[in-house]
Amino acid sequence: MSSLNLVYALSALVAALVVYRPFITRLDCMRYIFFCTAAAAVTLFLFVSSLSLTSPEESLQQHIHTHNNITTANRVLSSSTFSQWKTPASTLSILVYNSYYYNQNITTLLITLWKDASLLALIAATSISFFGIISRWDFPILHVKPQEHIFYDFLYRHVSSVSLILLGSYSNSINTGSYPHQVVSIFCPVIAMLYLFSGPYLFRRWRVVTATACLTSCIGYFSASHTIQLSIFTSWTVADWFSISFIFSGATAALDYWDAIMNTYPYLASNNIKDHVRMQDPMKLYYWIHLVKTIVNLSSESELDPEPIEDIKAAIRSLGDNKRSWKTMSILFPSNLRQEMCVLYAWFRVCDDIVDDMDPQIYGTFALDLVCKFLNQVFSHTNNNNHDKLIGGRRRQRRGRSSFSSEQQQQQQQIATKFSKSAFQDPRIPHAIDWDYYAQYLNETQLATLRGFSRLAPILCPKAAFALTDAWKIDIHRKAMKSQDDLLSYAGLISGRFAELCTCVIMYKSGRGNWNGGDPAARKDDVLQRARATGQCLQLINIARDLIADSLEGRCYIPLQYMSSRRTYKILKDSRDPSRIGDNTLKSYAIQILKLADCLTAQAQDGINGLPYEVRDGVRAAFEIYSAISPAIRDAKGFPKRVKVPKRRQQIIAFSCIYGFNPGLMDILLATRNKILKFAHTKMTGVYKRTADISLPSN
């Protein structure tokens, strides 16, 4: 029975880890190490406190009263040995004294101490896992509100922390000398410290913090009820367990809070981009040094610039329901990476919409020039020589539009101070960007996504970003794909280069260095090449699926070498009437394009395997879900306008990729379940029919 407490606590932890395992990040690993070590230290502190708070007589009477052995108590209290151990006040003397009269040895007490420490460490790890499972469906940075009145910040931080300290002092004063009731008073100052540093976030996330604390406190209380009598947890109440569980969940939330602030506002810790690279890995000391600097330099949320947070919200809103698969996939990423990936994808979609929405017959290449001008200004601050060579010619062509005199810069500063002051307060946004110019043609959501992208520019590869403009140029001019090599080249430009940008962000946020090209030692070209193959493969599948949709919009990406005559291309592109081609012919084109994608699948899988483990499962799930379009096209009758993978199938694929199950086995189990339900439904329908056929007897 003495080990049942560990069995129960370990079972709860294993159950939580089974669910949370695919989402564990490097920060979580450090949390497990730090919190479990702290739990062991707290156990030792409480164990020593429980011995030092009572005299030898009180300790002996309490324990022997627990054992209901009055005869032993009288015998021990009257013995001569008692006076030998009565005098020393040291904890070690009391420890040896207690072990002597319980016919126990030091080893037994140390084993009990080890079991208590293990129990509390298991509760700490369980609290981290439960909090991660419950809270990961949202962005922590969205719960930071710099625009909220400073009174609420004062209330959340200072008033609550002072109240908790007073509560702990009051609890200690009314329970003087009674250790079992002093646990809450010991933990109150710790909780007060959490509220002092992270009060606003704890109040806004009180549901998650409280739910985690309640769940883990119940597990701890139930496990402690099966401990031996020498354990310090035998006298703990539900309130005691809730206090320590609240500390674990609150500390986890506080760490998420400051991690989100440091990643969104890295200049609070340092203005050096090299320091920003070092602070991305929680397993290195630089991360914790800069985290402490962030905490020290920020005394209130009102000191933060609200625009980065508002831009993230706008980027998420711009994705909308049509991009739900991307947001679902991004849930599998760590929080700091998830918000950056959403901003990057939102920028990609906004630029794509800008190019598509402006009719080239009316506006010409103005939309493309707008995007190119923005990229020139965004990357104008970089010192990358390769980038300078890349955009040097384009900059010379647009020198009249992209260079600014001192008067123009001063005027822009005044406009920014009036309308968009915070954009110039963020040192990550290049001052060369003419926001007033873009505001004439773009709405606020589009401007927000551009600002978000400009903050990511120092970690992105300029060459990959400018390659996207070449793909959009093909879209504007509606160039025909003469061969499948042209199709592969286009797919590599549009999605392959975007996959390269995503890889730059992934590697940077996971602590693998800056892959923008400025640090050749950190950048690995073979990984980027495989990443481009992954994006290229997915783009080919997308093209094969959207043959009809593209034709209705006047686009055709089918290589001319697949067609029997040029007339087919004109029908699809100019006439916009794919029905005249026939489903069988369109399906044959799609299958040929899918065969090209199949040739890249192996290289794409190698690219996924080269990613950090934190994001590997999420990217693989997204790749497999999108790849499921290929068999859906092949198995469809005719050629539908837009093939969609059923949500149930997407869930099965995602579950299989995340938890390592075989999708085929899941399909078999699901089919078996459906057959059983269908058989039961048929039987019940027959019973109801026979019952209805029975006529009632006449009177």
TrEMBL record:
<protein>
    <recommendedName>
        <fullName>15-cis-phytoene synthase</fullName>
        <ecNumber>2.5.1.32</ecNumber>
    </recommendedName>
</protein>
<feature type="transmembrane region" description="Helical">
    <location>
        <begin position="6"/>
        <end position="23"/>
    </location>
</feature>
<dbReference type="InterPro" id="IPR002060">
    <property type="entry name" value="Squ/phyt_synthse"/>
</dbReference>
<feature type="compositionally biased region" description="Basic residues">
    <location>
        <begin position="392"/>
        <end position="401"/>
    </location>
</feature>
<dbReference type="InterPro" id="IPR008949">
    <property type="entry name" value="Isoprenoid_synthase_dom_sf"/>
</dbReference>
<feature type="region of interest" description="Disordered">
    <location>
        <begin position="386"/>
        <end position="410"/>
    </location>
</feature>
<feature type="transmembrane region" description="Helical">
    <location>
        <begin position="154"/>
        <end position="173"/>
    </location>
</feature>
<dbReference type="GO" id="GO:0016117">
    <property type="term" value="P:carotenoid biosynthetic process"/>
</dbReference>
<feature type="transmembrane region" description="Helical">
    <location>
        <begin position="32"/>
        <end position="53"/>
    </location>
</feature>
<keyword id="KW-0125">Carotenoid biosynthesis</keyword>
<dbReference type="Pfam" id="PF00494">
    <property type="entry name" value="SQS_PSY"/>
</dbReference>
<keyword id="KW-0472">Membrane</keyword>
<feature type="transmembrane region" description="Helical">
    <location>
        <begin position="117"/>
        <end position="134"/>
    </location>
</feature>
<feature type="transmembrane region" description="Helical">
    <location>
        <begin position="209"/>
        <end position="232"/>
    </location>
</feature>
<keyword id="KW-1133">Transmembrane helix</keyword>
<feature type="transmembrane region" description="Helical">
    <location>
        <begin position="179"/>
        <end position="197"/>
    </location>
</feature>
<keyword id="KW-0812">Transmembrane</keyword>
